[in-house]
Amino acid sequence: MRLQKIYTIGLVAFFSLLMLLAFKKKKEKINYPSYKGLVMCGYQGWFRTPGDGGARGWVHYGTKSFNPDNVTVDLWPDMSEYKKTYSTDFLNKDGSPATVFSSLDASTVDLHFKWMKEYGIDGVFVQRFYNNSKKGPRRKEATQVLKNAFKAANKHQRAIAVMYDLSGLKKEESCYETLVSDWQRLIDELKFNKGVNKENYLHHNGKPLIAIWGVGFQERPYTAKSSEIERFMDFVKNDPEYGNFSIMLGVPTKFRTLDGDCEPDNYVHEVIRKADIVQPWFVGRFRMQHLENKVYKTQIAKDVAWCQENAVDYVPTIYPGFSWYNLKRMKGEVGKDNSLNAIPRLKGKFFNKQVDLAIEHGAEMLYVAMFDEIDEGTAIFKATNTPPINGTFSDYEGLPSDHYLKLTGQAGERLKKQQ
């Protein structure tokens, strides 16, 4: 009788454990367990307007104001689908005020994620700039954009991940204390390492993925060592409460050879080897002639080989074209590289050629810069071919406003077919 009782208790315990494991597995469903096979975009989310509920006024449209004498964007968004719009001093052809969006509005972010789903784009890394990770109103607004992005990602079942951008870090300044404090608050507020916000959070190598951009760039006031980025990496990898994350590092084009745009310091390689993915920055570095000769394909092939030798995964940066005419004009800087459409899009040929060569020479995942970047003319979202008449702007060369959304989705199809 006693043996039967022990047997019964053991049986109940066994099935209880099975049920607990099944419940845990169901609760921790992960829709994006690996970056491999995916096309992700960078998402700036930094455009602000007066009246959007924030405290910053015009941000990234112009410098403090936004008018024909003060403008920093080269593309004008196609505003036909936005729920909330904001009037400007710019005029459409019919004389009506041209409008723009604010990234702070939840409806704006939701529309962008809706487009991602419609066109088969896997998801985005939401940029979190160093100065926005400090305490104060800027952090509050940046966090609201991120919250809106998580909500939209869950609604539209898109992949999402946090990307810290070290831009703004000063000379010999350590980012460690600021980023650790911000990271702890983010985890506590958004809980994307568990619960509902974990389901669509991008994972890699069995762990949720954090991206850190701006490590090892020669022209930066800080260095890889002075930033103490390695300390922060150790924290997000190993902290018992806020860690257990994989890491992607955004590095210079010449990270492998430690020259050109990269610090000539072997320490950069030491830091990279502690990451899971390396993402070299190619924006502005290559033109169509580099794709048509051996420069680009050689770069990709040698990068892939180096990463394989050093046990790090590789994701190249793909971009549709480049233009920062208005941004540089406001700074009084003129020249060939600062002209309108400095790196032409060629109606998508430049974008598609990069995708084909990257996949052909070993890339297993792609990073597209950027989803919404109209300051530097790299946006792939819907932009208009009829920008305001009282300004100088680029356009999509008469192509439909969704042309680059389609190309990005098609790039994902080609990548998945190759995989």
TrEMBL record:
<dbReference type="InterPro" id="IPR026071">
    <property type="entry name" value="Glyco_Hydrolase_99"/>
</dbReference>
<dbReference type="Pfam" id="PF16317">
    <property type="entry name" value="Glyco_hydro_99"/>
</dbReference>
<keyword id="KW-0812">Transmembrane</keyword>
<keyword id="KW-0333">Golgi apparatus</keyword>
<protein>
    <submittedName>
        <fullName>Xylosidase</fullName>
    </submittedName>
</protein>
<feature type="transmembrane region" description="Helical">
    <location>
        <begin position="6"/>
        <end position="23"/>
    </location>
</feature>
<keyword id="KW-0378">Hydrolase</keyword>
<dbReference type="GO" id="GO:0004559">
    <property type="term" value="F:alpha-mannosidase activity"/>
</dbReference>
<keyword id="KW-0472">Membrane</keyword>
<keyword id="KW-0735">Signal-anchor</keyword>
<keyword id="KW-1133">Transmembrane helix</keyword>
